[in-house]
Amino acid sequence: MANAFSIDTFTAKLGGGGALASLFQAEITEFKGNWAGDAKDNFSFLCKASNFPTSSIDVTEINYMGRPFRIPGNRAAQDWTTSIYNDEGFEIRNALENWMEQISSHTSNKRASGMKTINSYTGTMNIKQLSKAGGTVGKNYIFTQIWPYTLAEITVDWDTNEIQMYDVTWAFSYWTSAASGINRGGTGGPAGT
Length: 193
Fold this sequence. Notes:
Elements: H1 7-13, E1 24-30, H2 39-46, E2 47-49, E3 57-64, E4 67-75, E5 79-85, H3 91-103, H4 118-121, E6 123-130, E7 136-151, E8 165-171, E9 174-176
């Protein structure tokens, strides 16, 4: 390292000035339940916060003559959370409540008749990084067999003047990202293979 402190070197290494956390878009591309009106399209605009997914592999510890060593185990199940602004018509929230009701009814604890297999009650979503110059940077995560399992409360309070917001926690089977070479086939090879 030629110079421990050089602002010019640092900024040259920060491609495009760095990815901004505020430039993202989350979309529901396949959903279940009753999504009335513009709820599906509005989700992209009203989803105000989320995260790029965690990637985690469980560790298996094996002992050999008193010495532990660690080897990779299986992929660990992760959650994905989105924060959504509430519209006055509750369109997105109503759709999510309906989706969850069809998975497991409040009154009967039964699944809707058309939702027997995993693909019949799960959907597909994605989140992508956007560029400051417009368009997608090239990082896009696709969540497969996703479904909402926690729909958080909405706080109401006479002392606040803020738009209502709530979190949704999603379960999913796996995510893919072509830019990382992680594709649906699970080969781990280059994108497109």
